[in-house]
Design a protein that fits this description.
It is built from eight helices and no strands. By secondary structure, the chain is mostly helical. The protein has helices spanning 6-25, 28-45, 52-72, 74-78, 95-102, 105-116, 121-128, 132-152. The protein is 74% helix and 0% strand.
Length: 153
């Protein structure tokens, strides 16, 4: 069983959770709310984790589920889109960053998990609930779309 304190988890994973939420929602406000909700769920769950990887996968899965819940809520469907300048940090802005943000959510998610978080296809499949073949296909299509977007610019 993996031992941890909530402060240690927050220090280590808050940026990871926020970046994934931001990648999926394209909104700083929603990403901040979801990040906070992930930690509320962690504290209220009192779940025991087998390893640090199990903990990280659980945090990412909860982040994905909360973004899905947000997009399927009736409140979200009836509100207008926020226009804001999103960024992780100024030094991370690049043509590639902006190209990734133009992709649809499913492609942004797998690309983020693979390239930013370093997960394998099988690990992404477990986190997202998709089959490994679907993840491979989404990564392939996402890379193709990124290439086209960057070449256009």
């Amino acid at each position: 069983m993996y031992r941890y304190t909530y402060e240690e988890i927050a220090d280590k994973y808050i940026d990871t959770i926020y970046r994934l939420a931001l990648s999926r929602t394209k909104s700083q406000q929603y990403a901040e709310d979801i990040t906070q909700d992930v930690f509320v769920k962690l504290i209220s769950s009192r779940k025991n984790f087998e390893s640090e990887e199990h903990l990280k996968a659980w945090l990412l899965r909860v982040t994905i589920n909360l973004t899905k819940d947000l997009f399927s809520s009736s409140w979200f469907k009836t509100t207008g889109e926020l226009s804001e300048d999103i960024s992780y940090r100024d030094e991370e802005k690049s043509d590639l960053y902006y190209a990734v943000m133009k992709l649809s959510q499913k492609y942004r998610t797998v690309i983020h998990l693979h390239y930013y978080e370093g997960y394998s296809v099988d690990e992404i499949a477990k986190i997202t609930g998709a089959s490994p073949g679907t993840v491979k296909s989404q990564l392939h299509r996402g890379r193709q779309m990124l290439k086209e977007l960057i070449e256009e610019e």
